[in-house]
Amino acid sequence: MKHDRILLAHGSGGLMSQRLIDEIFKKAFNNDIMEPMLDGAILDLPAGKLAMSTDSFVITPLFFPGGDIGKLSICGTVNDLLACGAQPLYLSTAFIIEEGLPISDLRSIVASMAETARQVGVKLVTGDTKVVEKGSADGVFINTTGIGIIPAGIDYLPQRINSGDKVIVTGNIGDHGLAILAQREGLSFSTPVLSDCAPLYQLKDMIDKYQDAIRCMRDPTRGGLATVLNEIAVQAGVGIRVKEADIPVSVAVQGACDMLGMDPLYMANEGKMVIFVAAEAAEDFLNDLHKMSQTENAALIGRVSPEPAGMVLVETELGAERILGVLEGEHIPRIC
Amino acid sequence: MKHDRILLAHGSGGLMSQRLIDEIFKKAFNNDIMEPMLDGAILDLPAGKLAMSTDSFVITPLFFPGGDIGKLSICGTVNDLLACGAQPLYLSTAFIIEEGLPISDLRSIVASMAETARQVGVKLVTGDTKVVEKGSADGVFINTTGIGIIPAGIDYLPQRINSGDKVIVTGNIGDHGLAILAQREGLSFSTPVLSDCAPLYQLKDMIDKYQDAIRCMRDPTRGGLATVLNEIAVQAGVGIRVKEADIPVSVAVQGACDMLGMDPLYMANEGKMVIFVAAEAAEDFLNDLHKMSQTENAALIGRVSPEPAGMVLVETELGAERILGVLEGEHIPRIC
């Protein structure tokens, strides 16, 4: 590249846009579907149900302990597709870049996207690049939209959740939120906290194996575990009871949260899934999760009851029960 | 809504995000696929080829003569799908909103998206909303990603273009670019120029009728007609010869361009298509375009020749021939 920073002309649609695409995006995302460089990608898919999911990423800072906006932009959409029971296949990606972004930063972000996509086995098949004037955006915003195939018989709607089902979370919660907050505020802890940012592709095998013993899945991102449990309680029309002592939180995150007066139950996660599983399958399911590297800290944290419908109750470590509300107001802005 | 402007908390993922989604997005985009409000949309599609296309829209100003960012965000992606030969079906939409945006503006934009989608017959099935601090974006940026089905036998790749094929443009060029420029600069003309922003859904019937007599289509947005012709000449490995006198430009746009020293061939369009058609079908094709409201000013502007491969030549009104280059540098930033 002739320049070391992004110029407005890189978004012109003309010669410099073409060079940016050729030099940065095509080289990194290189695949046969993107290659013809049309206005869209042409995909050959078998008949059946598809999942489609979209997310824009506006996280600040762009690079953080455990990841960057590029890795996050793949993880977020891949995990949403998995939550729909889909095998993620194809992603589109659209960049809104602030004039002046160092091209070396863009290269790192794009390399990180390509590497994460490779790990999952998804292809980045079509894209878009816009450039806005300095001060009209903040570094770079990335949208990814994904599609995946839902295997026959899979239908992970909250309405399938029954009283007696178990609630599993696939690992420690709060790491992403705390890692971002700590970096932003310049806090450092004796044990550094890394974002859990990860594409949960190992769950593909669990969908294959457990099929409809899995009732419903959702990834607890913005708003954290508490907000996701509340959403599902309302959508499924059931009560959810969790035990505080069973919710896995790392010592570092718990300590930092205590110090800062934050609650890990409301902290964002970017590599975790909350899974509702039929009671009879729960033990095997958990054992299988423990065998996989991405979910070795999975824990059974609660169960579904008919009452109180639409609400989440937490049994505290002292045995009392309290209502776990949905996140009100703002927690940590631009966490993803 | 309790507030009249967007707050950071509307992007929290918690209660206020939920209210924003319920009050603004769900009401406007209301459909059975979006209704379950999962992490993604579940779609039932027949087997066959799909097209997938993505675009982020960063246009300024948000409201302009002939449209707004909402309408544009549907037109852009719908037209890209049509250019792939696809019947547009489903769109995702992701908003990045600057804190402080008047909620009444968001409502207008969303209403305009819903109305345009209804007109085309596409459904907005899944979405995402992020809010960034005042000064970290500019009003609102919208991403739409669409998928559509490509009928069997349709394969509109530039490689299908042959020497002798005709080049058609579906109407007057330059209107969008000039309308935005004029509004931004506070220029007014005796005949007001409106953006041509339109979803070219009437072309669906032309794809059905003409099948592979259509070789390739592309919408001349950023970079204008000149840039699209150059892209195709390179991708197809052919020469393209157009006649300046045959390229339809309205009197108002031509006059304004002359005054401003701009060239309409490089001005953005948001409701036009460049179509390469087999010579023997071109006359009927053009007649059919003239019968439809969206393409009544369509014109045959040129033809494909083996030489000079990868280049576009314009025959000027005086009979001379000049090379029509691709857009270099920046033309008009944030035009879409």
Automatic annotation (TrEMBL), chains A, B:
InterPro entries listed in its UniProt record: HypE, PurM-like_C_dom, PurM-like_C_sf, PurM-like_N, PurM-like_N_sf
Annotated Pfam families: AIRS, AIRS_C
Gene Ontology biological-process entries: protein maturation
The PurM-like N-terminal domain, residue ranges: 39-150
UniProt domain PurM-like C-terminal: residue ranges: 163-309
Residues spanning the signal sequence: none
Stored PANTHER family: CARBAMOYL DEHYDRATASE HYPE, HYDROGENASE ISOENZYMES FORMATION PROTEIN HYPE
Family: Belongs to the HypE family.
Annotated NCBIfam families: hypE
Name this protein carries in UniProt: Hydrogenase expression/formation protein HypE
